[in-house]
Amino acid sequence: MKIGIVGLPNVGKSTLFNSITKAGAECANYPFCTIEPNVGVVAVPDERLQVLAKMYNTKKVTPAVVEFVDIAGLVKGASKGEGLGNKFLSHIRETDAIAEVVRCFDDSNIVHVDGSVDPIRDIETINLELVFADIETIQKRLERATKMLKADKKYQIEIDLLNKIKTALEAGIPARNLEYNEEELPILKDLYLLTNKPFIYIANVSEEQLQNIENDENVKKVREYANKEKSEVVTLCVKIEEEISTLEEDDKKEMLEALGIPESGLDTLIKRSYSLLGLMSFLTAGEPEVRAWTIKKGTTAPVAAGKIHSDIQRGFIKAEVISYDELIKEGSMLQAKEKGLVRQEGKDYIMQEGDIVLFKFNV
Fold it and tell me: What's residue 84's pLDDT?
C-alpha cells in the first residue's frame, strides 16, 4: 500500500519523508528539489511485537509496513502542466492515499512559493488541481460512454455516475465525500480519481507552536477544513521529528518526555495512515519469528491465511485464535489453552485487529 506525501514547495514535505524513512531524500530551499518520487518502506509502530518476542524468546521480529512516496512539489496550474504538474499527477495517481503537508509556521529564511503563509489557500491550491484533473478524466469518460450508449444501454449507469461526480467536483466536493451504490462502485474504482483517495492533512508547525497547539489559529483552520470534508489531521513539527528520528530509542523517549509529547508525530502519522487505508494487523508468534501481517478490515480467516502462503489458504481447515490482550493477561499460550481461551474458528470467521493466529491446513 502506497501513501503519497504531497504539498506545495518548501512546506517541509521532503524533510518529513527523510524523518519517516531516514532515506536521505535531497532537501533544499527551492521548489522541485524532489523531481523523481522517493520511495520508502516504513515499519508500522507496534509495541505488541516486542512483548511477544520476549514471551516466545523469538529470533526474529517482522513488523507490518506502509510505503511512503515523496512526490515533487506542486504549484497552481499543475493540472494544465505548470511546474512539474504532469509528473505530480501521474505519480499521485499510483498511490492508495494522500498525505498533504500544510505549512502552518512563519520563517523568513524559508521561501514560500506564494509569498506568505496561508494554510487554507495552500490546501485549496492543491485540492483544486486534483479536482481539475478529475473533471478532465470524467469529461473524457463521458464522451466515450455517450458514444457507447447507442450500442449498449448499460452505459447509462456510467453516464449518470459521471455526471453526479462532475456536479460535485464543480461545487468543490471531492469524490470521496459522495455515496455510491453497488452498481456504481466498480465503475468508480475504474476511474482512478484523485479526489476519491483517502486524505490526511499534516499540519507542520514550529516548536514554539507545539507548546500551545490547541489555541493555534493556523492549526484550527486546518482542522476545521478537514472536518468539513471528513479527513484527518496530524499536527507535528517536522524539524523536531527530523531530530528525533536520528536518536536511539532511550534518547528518543527522553526527548519526547521533555517536550511533553506521548509519542512522536511520525509514529502517529504512520499509525493513522495504516488505519486510513482500512488496514489492520493479525499476528503470528513463535520462537522462529513474531510477525505482524497486513490485511484489509473485514478479511476472512482463509484469505488472511493466504497472506502467509497460498497453500495455507487453499488447504485451510481452521484457525486457532486468541486476542493479544487475552494472551498477555494469561502470561502464556499454555495457560490460555488450559482456560479454554484459544478459539477454533472456521472459514467464515472475520479477522480482528490483534488476533494471534495459528492456521491449520492440509494440501
Answer: 45
